[in-house]
Amino acid sequence: MNPKVIMSGIRPTGTGAAHLGHWEGALKSWVKLQDMGECYYSIVDWHALTTEYQDVKNIQGNIRQVLLDLLAVGIDPEKSVVYLQSAVKEIAELFLLLGMMTPLGWLERVPTFKEQQAQLGDRDINTFGFLGYPLLQTVDIVVMKADTVPVGEDQVFHLELAREIVRRFNGLYGDCFPEPQPFLTPIPKLPGVDGRKMSKSYGNAIYLGDTAEAVDKKIRPMITDVRRKRRSDPGVPGDCPVFALHQAYSGAEEIAMVDGECRKAGIGCIDCKKILIRNINGFLEPFRQRRRRYEAMAVADILASGNRRAAERAARTVAEVRALMNI
Length: 327
Description:
The protein is mainly alpha-helical.
């Protein structure tokens, strides 16, 4: 794969902060891709409104938190264009134009449309914006003329929809957009501190900006293998969420040691957790140091610069679309 232009986005929802699940599922690939092509990474605040439009008081603070997380994990504004979706007004115009030729049935068949309606039953998301968010995702990609999009397998359907929209536009009006290809990022089964999938909405996440004390406080009460009611009870590491985190953040020798000792009750859960706490804090420390440096800087200037660069590229794309559509 030889990507030329890479695009992806992150929503500033919940606390705004990114957690270990975001790192494993997306941000790790974003950092890697910086040396493989021209990267456009967007904080997609309009996407946040598709589910959070009823409570917008924290959105500005969330944008700052997401920006600090991106910089902390190693997204380099000298290598990548980091920008705010709503600062690029051409995205809204292209959303309108492509909406004129996107069949309604294509949006209604997106699997997550009905899934999220069920999962977010406490919110009124029977809105045009929520139905149209896959088209808005397509616009985010094609307005930058991206040929590569880092996605997990759960997002492949959305990217195929983008490819269908591109083919339809190119067929109707003439070649304009490349068909974006997926850069698949494996999404590990990373548990939160309650054993469920790590998620902001569950309140069970370890955040990239958590202090060492916060990590300790979250991991110490974690539920382990239910077989280990007493210190002398052997366990099955594969059934323990603490061990799942070991597999992501501990070294091979420690993983093997914990696995073997747990099975014969040679190590207690408290000592097992102490090892994990040390290793996760060791992993997060470089992020914390970079974050502290950026917190002392005018990061709004970094975003403003990215906004200008993204808007310039988007303006060229929209001018081409207008010409092709005779607008």
